[in-house]
Design goal:
This protein is α/β, with parallel strands linked by helices. The protein folds into 3 domains: about 120 residues, Helicase, Ruva Protein, domain 3 (Orthogonal Bundle); about 170 residues, Rossmann fold (3-Layer(aba) Sandwich); about 210 residues, no CATH class. The longest helix has about 60 residues. The protein is rod-shaped, with a radius of gyration of 42 Å. The N terminus and C terminus are likely disordered.
Length: about 575
């Protein structure tokens, strides 16, 4: 089917097969185990293997049996599927069962039982790394702790939106800022004034011009005109020029010192701003810091977060000014793009309680691995640039897929196989679903469950013999089971269970015998009973309707025969080409 498939899989001890006899079970030590099929409280089996009512069943009805509407072999299937809960993350299973509604419901129920037994694993929390070379990081934390971290950081950001602007608007900060400003101004002005006084004492003027400062010769408080200066004797002119050069050099030093003063001012102002912001940041993150102190990676990330918040405190001040100094609504803060880098996204939210079952909407990369909304160049990624897919969203739970869908989709199985081998899913680019943004991947811990019948399993193995070796087969339910006295008792209890579930009237022993005989086929010397309970249920409902139309309070063998004939006619009609077209019409 696919050109990348190679050879058929070899036999492997990974294949688990439920015994053909669903009620003659074998204990783990190889000895025969006691059958657990429900038995009537006061009588032997109601029917025999050949489908005829026994003399011991005379006068008995389905009301005399313990109701049990479960599918045949349920206990064996439950034991076989127990391996799922104990398997390591990223295990792959094929659950084989007949394709009937009853079997599908039973498989689903058993998978739910196994999923509930899987201990919660670490959740995947996506956070900003505050490093342009690697914009996003992954934190692995227990589900409740990951959710608490995300909520705690969101609360801290909301708090900082108030406390940081308030801190920078406080009187203490304003006084400290004015002191720095005055120190810068006075330091520069004092140096200029001192130079100006010394130059004036030697008839050299320090002049302020639109372009800066200038040095010029002075006489009696006035600048000497250029033509007058040129007319001076050479000796006098040389002395003045020497003074001019000396003061120009000194002025250059003062101006250079001003640059140093400004650099020092900016450093001290930054230190002041960081000191003020750090007080607010430490207070807002105190609870989060304490809660994750024992988680080394998470604690290191909170330290990096704290440092980035302090450095970028102006984001909160600017936002407050845009809001006119008023309080911002929580929803506005939560959706502020400038603050998105500080959010925490927990990808597998289901890990907050216990793993569960999930199904993909489709088998495309975007549905399985998630989507990455890659921003324009120059715009950093944020944790919410990633939208989780079913494989990461399921956490350590179960992802269930129909084997026919997987085989039919050309790219699904290679993608799944690669993800479960590597343990990481690479999301699709939102702008180009077939592309994978470089450097972005999300850990996957889910267990993959493929479902179908044995023919589907053979088709799956034929499609990818090499890949199928990693998939463990669990044959949960056989299509037929050998008829034994224990199975006969279980069949009677099944009838009683369906009658109770559907609110039907009792069914007599002869009717049960007829119904069993209709569902029995001969294979050599063995009698086999179908495990498809759907047809049995439908036949009982039709027979019940027929009996009530005849004003009978107990469904008889004749009612069952009438129901079976009606079903046969319906099947024949559905097989006609015209009928098929009619049934397919919307």
């Amino acid at each position: 089917m696919f050109n990348f498939f190679q050879r058929t899989p070899k036999a492997s001890p990974a294949i688990l097969v439920v015994p053909d006899d669903a009620d003659q079970r074998t204990a783990d030590d190889g000895s025969a185990a006691t059958a657990t099929a429900p038995t009537p409280s006061n009588s032997p089996p109601v029917v025999s293997a050949n489908g005829h009512a026994t003399s011991q069943a005379a006068g008995k009805t389905s009301a005399d049996y313990t109701p049990d509407a479960s599918i045949f072999g349920l206990a064996d299937a439950r034991r076989a599927m127990a391996l799922i809960a104990s398997a390591k993350p990223r295990a792959l299973f094929f659950i084989a069962a007949p394709r009937t509604a009853g079997h599908a419901a039973a498989v689903r129920a058993l998978l739910a039982e196994q999923a509930a037994k899987i201990p919660p694993g670490d959740a995947v929390a996506v956070v900003s790394s505050f490093d342009d070379r690697r914009p996003l990081s992954i934190l692995r934390l227990p589900g409740p702790e990951a959710n608490a971290l995300a909520a705690g950081i969101a609360d801290a950001i909301e708090m900082l939106s108030v406390t940081i602007p308030a801190a920078f608007d406080s009187d203490s900060y304003k006084v400290a800022r004015l002191a720095l400003d005055e120190e810068l101004r006075s330091g520069h002005d004092n140096a200029i004034d001192a130079l100006k006084r010394r130059a004036s004492a030697q008839n050299i003027g320090l002049l302020r011009t639109p372009l800066g400062y200038a040095i010029a010769p002075m006489h009696e408080g006035r600048v000497v005109a250029p033509d007058v200066f040129k007319a001076l004797p050479e000796g006098l002119k040389a002395g003045v020029e020497a003074k001019l050069s000396a003061f120009e050099a000194e002025l250059s030093g003062v101006l250079d010192n001003r640059t140093l003063l400004q650099q020092d001012y900016r450093t001290r102002l930054r230190d002041l701003d960081e000191e003020v912001a750090s007080l607010a940041v430490r207070a807002s993150l105190a609870a989060v810091t304490k809660a994750i102190a024992a988680r080394e990676a998470a604690a290191a990330w909170v330290d990096a977060l704290s440092a980035d918040l302090v450095r970028n405190a102006a984001l909160f001040v600017t936002a407050a000014r845009r809001a006119g100094g008023g309080a911002r609504a929580p929803v506005e803060i939560a959706h502020d793009p400038a603050l998105a880098r500080y959010r925490v996204q927990v990808m597998n939210l289901q890990q907050s309680s216990s793993p569960s079952i999930d199904d993909p909407d489709s088998l495309e990369r975007a549905s399985l691995c998630g989507v990455a909304h890659v921003p324009p160049p120059g715009v950093p990624l944020t944790p919410f640039s990633l939208v989780p897919g079913v494989l990461s969203r399921a956490g350590g739970g179960l992802v269930v897929m129909d084997a026919r869908d997987v085989v039919a989709d050309f790219g699904a199985w290679p993608l799944l196989n690669q993800v479960f081998k590597s343990g990481a899913a690479q999301p699709a680019d939102a702008a180009s679903p077939i592309a994978r943004p470089a450097g972005m991947s999300v850990p996957v811990d889910a267990r993959l469950i493929l479902t179908g019948d044995l023919d589907d399993y053979r088709a799956f193995c034929a499609a990818d013999p090499e890949g199928a070796r990693a998939v463990r087969l669990i044959e949960a339910f056989d299509a037929t089971i050998p008829m034994t006295p224990d199975v006969e008792r279980a069949f009677a209890s099944l009838i009683a269970g369906i009658v109770a579930e559907e609110g039907l009237q009792p069914v007599d022993g002869a009717a049960i015998a007829v119904l069993m005989h209709d569902r029995t086929t001969t294979a050599g010397a063995a009698s086999l009973l179908s495990t498809d309970c759907d047809i049995i249920r439908d036949s009982l409902i039709l027979a019940n309707h027929h009996a009530r139309s005849q004003a009978r309070v107990v469904t008889s063998a004749g009612d069952i025969i009438s129901a079976l004939k009606r079903r046969a006619r319906q099947d024949e009609q559905m097989a006609l080409p015209g009928r098929k077209a009619e049934s397919a019409a919307p």
